[in-house]
Amino acid sequence: MRVGEILKRAFTIGLITSLIMFTISLMCYVLGMSLLAIDISFIAAIVLLLTPMSSLIAVAIELARRGDYRGLIAVVVVVCIVAISMLIALLLY
């Protein structure tokens, strides 16, 4: 499978999942279930944040399979930077 197809599928699935969850959260809020709405929107935000991370991991697997180790090192560095920034954001939240 080409890298472009992997990215397209990962971004599409992540975006649709998070949009559905945000919509459910909005409906819960309108119906007066605000605590449930907050929980669902938090999970949706995490799904939205993890979408690029899953795409990077999928690209790393594909690059490793092809033997492109220079690209793999670049992807691993980006994954580490994104993971550290997410960790810092969660700790400061």
Q: What is the ordering of alpha helices and beta strands?
A: HHH
Average pLDDT metric:
88
Secondary-structure-derived class: mainly alpha
**Radius of gyration, CA atoms, in whole angstroms:** 16 Å
Number of helices: 3
**Largest sheet data:** none
Uncertain stretches: none
Question: End-to-end distance, in Å?
Answer: 38 Å
Measured by DSSP, the beta-strand proportion falls in: under 5%
Total beta-strand segments: 0
Oligomer: single chain
Helix content: over 70%
Give structural notes.
It contains three helices and no strands. It has 93 residues and is mostly helical. The protein is elongated. The protein starts with a helix and ends with a helix. The model has no long low-confidence stretch (mean pLDDT 88).
